[in-house]
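Kindly go through the following sequence and its backbone structure tokens. Advise at your convenience whether the structure tokens fit the sequence:

___
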Amino acid sequence: MALALNKEELSQYLAEVFPQVREDFAIDALTEDSVTMRLLTAERHLRPGGTVSGPSMFALADVCVYAMVLARLGRQALAVTTNCSMDFMRKPEGGAQMIAECRLLKLGRTLAVGDVLMFSDGSDKPVARATLTYSIPPAGSAAASFS
């Protein structure tokens, strides 16, 4: 399935409908099958001890799957997370940005399932893995488009 939005269009649309992400996340790469994003790690993302917090890693995983759904389906701003499962495998580096690699495992009419691996920038060892399910509003419904 071809992309409905390219990297620039996706970044612009996210800034319009979800302006909070502008300060914290950046899209590094986008293909038909995957998106690579980063958490622009700042003091507010750290927990005591100087490591990236679990809620910040959840936000990165969630935004990645949301971005991938938007990239494939287009302007579907009201798609929502219905499930998330995360495994925390090792301590992320507090001074490094978090990199997330996301791919969609399933994209149906009503549900999308994505898998995300997260790394500290500069390391090839994953610090966390998440699988998320998104609910997609029915085509033609008032909730299906937001422009």
In short: Confidence is low (pLDDT under 50) at residues 143-147. The first strand starts at residue 25 and ends at 30. The CA atoms of residues 57 and 92 lie 10 Å apart. The radius of gyration is 15 Å.
